[in-house]
Design brief:
This protein is an alpha/beta fold. It contains ten helices and six strands; from the N terminus they run H-H-E-H-E-H-H-E-E-H-H-E-H-E-H-H. The protein has a single domain, classed as Rossmann fold. Strand 3 and strand 4 form a beta hairpin.
């Protein structure tokens, strides 16, 4: 039984390594190819993203897409999370991967628009815990009012990184709730250097946003989030902003298109089932 499990693990690891090598070869071909080759954009965007991030000392990858698992033996990983996991695999130790959907990040308390004015990010809202807030920059009332909240885990890694890449799905033409909630909870970063007139503590951190969707508004969402990151005070890196969308036909809501989208995503990105199986094994 033990020998069988060891043999199975070896086979999965060999399959994964073969798949990674295949994707690297495909990306090399992409970099030398012309623009008119079908589905070339996803490969090229992914390659450019990885090449750009490899120049960094530390990269934070924040995955914001969820999926309910009906069958624990067949884990269904969201598309945007698969991209984050693959990029993590390519970057190795310089990358930190965090799944926002598995963290306790409570809703924003809306202190930005109180009757007496904007109280988001005030100095007295600073989290007074050197373990959770070693930089001293974390100022969110929720972490004071609700000690169980885990946003500090994100900000702690964020302030230690020189690049952060957000991943999410598109739902009804907008970012999904996990990403939106995360950005609302980080509003104190923007308030600090705008409303409060203090220093911009993220001015040297580059950002990117990659999203996946079915049929509507993906590119517009990417453009909007780039502007949001700019407002926050980050340094948006154009290379790190792109989206994958199954079709541009916003009226295509057929079951057929939804069933085909997963397969097309794998074809467009070069990700194969062996890579997914490896990730599923890690989740289990």
């Amino acid at each position: 039984m033990i020998l069988s499990l060891i043999t199975q693990d070896i086979k999965i690891n060999m399959d994964l390594q073969e798949e990674l090598n295949r994707m690297r070869d495909m990306m090399r071909i992409v970099s030398e190819s012309k623009d008119d080759i079908p589905n070339i954009a996803s490969f090229r965007d992914l390659k450019k993203t990885i090449d750009e991030l490899k120049k960094k000392k530390k990269v934070l990858l924040l995955s914001c897409s969820n999926r309910y698992q009906f069958d624990p033996k067949k884990i269904d990983i969201p598309k945007s999370r698969l991209l984050a996991l693959y990029i993590k695999e390519e970057l190795g130790d310089i990358a930190e991967f965090m799944d926002i959907t598995e963290m306790k990040i409570l809703p924003c308390e809306a202190n930005v628009s109180r009757a007496e004015g904007n109280s988001c990010g005030l100095l007295k809202a600073m989290l007074k815990d050197k373990t959770k807030n070693p930089s001293g920059f974390h100022r969110c009332w929720v972490n004071i009012n609700e000690p169980s909240d885990e946003l500090w885990k994100v900000s702690k890694e964020l302030f230690e990184s020189d690049a952060v890449l957000f991943f999410s799905s598109i739902r009804w033409g907008q970012t999904n709730m996990y990403y939106q909630n995360l950005m609302e909870r980080l509003n104190w970063i923007e308030n600090r250097h705008t409303t409060l007139g203090e220093s911009n503590v993220v001015k040297n951190i580059e950002t990117g946003y990659i999203c996946t969707g079915q049929n509507w508004n993906g590119s517009n969402v990417v453009d909007t989030q780039k502007e949001v990151h700019r407002f926050y005070g980050f340094k948006p890196n154009d290379t790190l902003y792109w989206n994958w969308q199954y079709t541009k036909d916003e009226n295509d809501e057929t079951q057929k298109s939804y069933k085909e989208s997963h397969k097309k995503f794998l074809e467009d990105t070069g990700i194969k089932e062996s890579f997914i199986e490896k990730q599923n094994k890690g989740i289990k």
